[in-house]
């Protein structure tokens, strides 16, 4: 039971970074970006190219790709979402679905369907309080926790983070308070890109690199973001942990193949009983 | 006295029709101009257009001889025009201090960005705020929210302050406080353009009254003259004949 809970915790922690990216993008741009799964896949393959094909260390490869991927998402926004911004959230959501297909198939075209892995040394798992942990799990916990702390610092202590929260709260008021929303949108894509790149690498370490790797987390990512409250970074973090642990513990009573049903049930229940999620604000039409 | 804000033949609206049908208003420097009129006359639309939230279809907005027409809302703030909307005028999910900080953090002028978020001058005007710095702005009372919105608009040291129905929904105590604060702010040299339903209280602290109806300016007159008019009620309802009284 303890081991299962720990595995669930790690699964949840893997989901925190993409869930945070989803919630940041939703908060500022007001649409659910279903391309986040494929974005993680593409970023993971870019890291694979540097790490395995060029022989760079994984940490440096991830750092370089995280920054570059932030820039790439700004460019993708410029050609994909920006021209559609005035057409409303449904149009943007549909565009994100199309973009997801394109990005995943770019990865497939470049590397095929064969499962691949990063060039990392194998290490013997160790035990703590009867829980077996491997090195990848520890890296996942440490990296995700540091990323979450950095995000907390950014959102609460730095002007750009406060501006992102302000634009998410009330875009029209942000404009008349002197905040240039195009600049905030670019920063949001950049930060989301970094989170998704790191998230993609953590998924690639947990499993294998293959084109559907990011999409397979999509339901869990959205369940976490919706449970926490779309637009709430703290909610995304808590939501991800809850989804991970509950999904994993559920395998004690249901066959593991049906685990995917847990986040779907959570989405259904939360939308029926508390649509704003645990930490989100009730929607007010302005 | 020179005019700090000149609105010339302004047309704006939503969809196909115009709500503002050629508005001409001037705000002399250091004065308070209050716009009154019936619901739907275009008062709030006018302030939104001046703030840049709604596109002007025709006409011009000139602040200190600079046309604002093609400027984005943030650039208008930097030019010296600050706006307090009637509703949703604070960031509910940010703390009081964060609301005050953000109001000045994105100003191009470094002098304006620097220093503390709330100056001694602002503390004097809004003595309740420092005790609430850590509170979430969404948890404040209606009057406190209005005061916070007012303070945020002032942190950027505007030349012109636009207020959209600042007393709407407030208790009599806060209503008095709000108008007192408007008076104090104006005494410090800030020109004020205010839309207000509470005509009598607003006109008591105003220099000029503008009556709008159906997207037009129906009357421009000295505020004390309007207060003495016997048919103020019909004037407020927009029944006044089109006549311009020199202000």
Structure description:
The complex is a heterodimer of chains A (286) and B (247). Chain A is mostly helical and 286 residues long. Helices cover 70% and strands 2% of the residues of chain A. The model of chain A has no long low-confidence stretch (mean pLDDT 89). Chain B is an alpha/beta fold. In chain B, helix 7 links the parallel strand 7 (160-164) and strand 8. Classes of the chains: A mainly alpha (286), B alpha/beta (247). The interface between A and B is medium-sized, with 20 and 30 residues.
Secondary structure elements and their pairing?
The complex is a heterodimer of chains A (286) and B (247).
Chain A (H helix, E strand, L loop, with lengths): L1 H28 L6 H18 L4 H24 L7 H23 L14 E3 L2 E3 L1 H23 L1 H11 L1 H6 L4 H26 L11 H11 L4 H18 L10 H13 L13
Antiparallel strand pairs in A: 1-2
Helix pairs in contact in A: 1-5, 1-6, 1-8, 1-9, 1-10, 2-3, 2-4, 2-8, 3-8, 5-6, 5-8, 6-8, 9-10, 9-11, 10-11
Chain B lengths: L2 E10 L7 E9 L3 E5 L6 H9 L4 E8 L2 E2 L5 H7 L1 E4 L11 H10 L4 H4 L6 H6 L16 H13 L5 E5 L7 H16 L3 E5 L3 H6 L3 E6 L2 E7 H6 L3 H5 L6 E2 L3
Parallel strand pairs in B: 3-8, 3-9, 6-7, 7-8, 10-11
Antiparallel strand pairs in B: 1-2, 1-4, 4-5, 9-10
Helix pairs in contact in B: 3-6
